[in-house]
Each structure stands twice: as structure tokens, then as C-alpha cells.
Amino acid sequence: MFNIFDQLNDQLLITDQVAKVQICNAQKSIVHQHSSEKLKRYQALEQELQTFLNIATDVHAILNEHLEIISCNNGFQDILGWEESEVLKKNYVEFIDYPDAVQIITAINECKASGQVATNIAKCKCKDGKYKWIEWRGKYIANKKIHLLTGRDITLQKEREEERLAKREAEELEMLKDEFLINMSHELKTPLNVIYMTLQLESEEIKSALEKNGQEIELNILKRHDKIIQRNVYRLLRLIRNLTEIAKLESDEYRLNFINCDIVSIVRQISLAVADHMQSTKVKITFDTDIQELITACDPSAIEQIMLNLLSNTIKYRKDESKVRVSLTVKDNKVRVTVKDNGIGIPKTELEYIFKRFAKIDTSLNRKCEGSGTGLTVSKYLVELHEGSIWAKSQLNKGSSFIFEIPIVQISDEKDIYYGSTSQQIEEKCNIEFSDIYDI
């Protein structure tokens, strides 16, 4: 009897163990099936995402924290020509043209710090040596320490934009040329007409005196006529000089004569000479500097011409009572000269064009002066030949500031120092430069 029960018990134990194994296997099968389905769904989603990225973007890549490419799509090859083996483990910035690379690094760092999506446009290097414009979008994934990047090829849009810009600039230049030629015609005809008319007056007065049995001609009348003729001859000389200088500067034929000069003395001399020249007007010119002497290599004639051009431009566009302050300072091993006035100012829309060829601010018929608009262009060329820079700041009805700076350098084997032109030479230059201002 007990043997029967023992056998039954053993059978139940075996059955129970088999059932447990079957249940366990069933559970494993369910888990495996669930994991397999989950993996398939994940792989499907990953494939869908990859397909979406390939459709939505031209290039995409994953970078590590050192900006090395650890994964990329075929866009690098299709768009830029680089094969995957040539891209992987390379620094992403190596494929960006300078200086866009600097902007890209800044954008990536900002993206990493803020956690926001960053957008930037960069000129990217192709394998064939050409460049393409790519609009990049990136985001830093902090928990994985990776950068996700997508890029869109906008080369065609950029080229069309540049073509439109070039066309617009060409049209603007053509318009400026037309205005310039009209202005040149006026600039040439006006002094020539004045000279011709003055000579006719002199001829009539001489003829009248002869008809009156040798009556003497008043000397003051002849002097006044001579002064008018001289001023208009100066105007023509100034116009021809500026046009000739621009032609030489643009053809790279212009050469500066660098010598060691006391630039403080040169700027002071020109400023004070112009102040004396303008004594008959309400223009007050002052010169200010904390530096008594500063020796630097420059072309003194060019510096004098720059100063005369800036002061002439300032005086032309003055108010009835104008104050002009010339200051000289030194900063970062550069000498800076500022010509500041309280004149009529320059509109913001025209401020960026004033140093360009043919540009002119006031083309109205009631302006207080004539001028071809070439003086500031010449000044810009001369400053840049000194490896310097020139710019302007202005507010309407409050005044303008024209600033230029050049590096301080010296010719080591040059012992002589130039301190400036003679007063007679400067006066002659002032006569020419200010010949187109009516009321001096």
C-alpha cells in the first residue's frame, strides 16, 4: 500500500518538476519572443529614422566630445566627395573652411553649454578642392556625450544670392559712375567757365581802357580777376590730381616713400595751417595730443594728403558755426588720428559708401562747395598702403568723426627724421585743397 503511495508521490513530483520546466521554458520563450519583437521594432524605428534623415538632410554625422566623427551617412561622399573611411575618426572642423571653422566651434560650444539646437552656415571643403555651402544644425546629447549634426547643401541658393548681390552692386556702381560722370562734367565746366568769363572781363576792360586813349586799368580789379582765375586753376589741379591718384592706386603703380617721421609734427602742422587758412570763416580748428613727439615710418606727403582730405571734407559739410577737433593718440602700438566735427552728419544708409569710388554725400545744387567725391577714396587707399585702417562714425545734425590709424614702425638704418613741409609748401597745398569752398 505504502509502495503505491510512494510511487504516486514520486510520479507527482516528477510531473510537478516537468510542469515547472515547461512553464519556465514557456516564460523564456515569451520573454525571448517579446525581446525579439522589441528588437525588431527598435531596428525598424532606427531604419525609419535613418531613411528620414537621408531624405530630410543631405549630410548627417555623430561626433564625440573631441569633435571627431564616429558615424556619418553617405552625404559626405555624395555631397562633398569624401569616402566614409576618409571621414571617420577625423576632426569635423578639418572639413570646414577658415574663418567659418571658428564660428562653427563657437556655435558647438554654445550648443553644448545651453543644450539648445544650434544653426550655422559654413563653407565646407570638397575632396576635389572645391567648396560647398552647408547649413548645419546640431545638438549636444549630454548623457551620451555626443554631438548630433545634420547638414543641408545650400550651395545653389548661395550662388544665386551672390549673383543677385553682384548684379545689384554692379547696378549701383553703374549708377554711381553715371552720377560721377555728370558731376565730373560740372566740376570741369564750372572752373573753366569762370576762367573764360574772367578773361573775357579782363579783355573788355583792357579794350575799354585803350579806347579811352590809354586810360589806366585799376590794379585792384586785375588782382581780383587774377585771384578768381588762380582759385579755379587750383580746382582743376585738385580734380586732376585726385583722379590721377585713384587711377595709379587702382593699377598698383602707386608707391609710397617711407621715411622716419615725427607724425605728431606733421599732423599738427597741417591742422594749424588749415586753421589759419580758415580764419575768415566761422570754422574753429583745434589740435590736441598728449604726445610731444612720435617717430614712425610713413610717407609724409601721403599723411599730409590724408589730413587735408579729411579736414576738407569736414569743412565742406559744416554748419554755419563749426568746431573741428583733431586729436592724436597711441594705442596697441598704433597711432590714431581723429578728425571730429559738429557738422550736419552723414545718414547711416550712406555711411558705408563714403570711402567707395564715385561716392558723394551731398549732390544738391545749393551746397556750400563743389567736389568730385574722390578725396575720401584716395585717403582710404593711402591709409591701407600704410597697412592701416580708416572709418567714420556719424549722427545726423550732431556731427561726424573720421578716424584712421597706422602701425608704429621704424626704419632701423634711417637716421634722419622728417618733421614736415615748409609753411609755404603747406599753404600751397591748402590753396589747392580748399579751392572748391566758396566762402573762404
What is the topological layout?
Blueprint (H helix, E strand, L loop, with lengths): L1 H55 L2 E5 L5 E4 L2 H6 L3 H4 L12 H15 L3 E8 L5 E11 L4 E8 L1 H57 L7 H32 L8 E4 H15 L5 E7 L5 E4 L1 H17 L5 E10 L2 E8 L6 H4 L23 H11 L3 E7 L3 E9 L15 H11 L7
Parallel strand pairs: 7-9
Antiparallel strand pairs: 1-2, 1-5, 3-4, 4-5, 6-8, 9-10, 10-12, 11-12
Helix pairs in contact: 5-6, 6-10, 7-8, 7-11, 8-10
Structure summarized in a few sentences:
The protein is built from eleven helices and twelve strands. The protein is of the alpha+beta class.
Textual characterization of the structure:
The structure is a single chain. It is built from eleven helices and twelve strands. It has 440 residues and is of the alpha+beta class. The chain folds into four domains: 1-56; 57-153, Beta-Lactamase; 172-250, Orthogonal Bundle (Helix Hairpins); 259-433, Histidine kinase-like ATPase, C-terminal domain (Heat Shock Protein 90, 2-Layer Sandwich). The strands form three sheets. The chain has a five-stranded antiparallel beta sheet with strand order 2-1-5-4-3, sandwiched between helices. The chain has a five-stranded mixed beta sheet with strand order 7-9-10-12-11. A two-stranded antiparallel sheet has the order 6-8. InterPro entries: HATPase_C_sf, HATPase_dom, His_kinase_dom, HisK_dim/P_dom, HisK_dim/P_sf, PAS, PAS-like_dom_sf, PAS_fold_3.
Beta-strand level of the residues, as a percent range?
15-25%
Please tell me the total number of domains: 4
Task: Compute the number of helices.
Answer: 11
**What is the second-level CATH architecture of the largest domain?**
2-Layer Sandwich
Mind describing the biggest β-sheet?
5 strands, antiparallel
Large-scale geometry: elongated
EC number: 2.7.13.3
Enzyme class: transferase
Pfam family, one: HATPase_c
GO molecular function, one term: phosphorelay sensor kinase activity
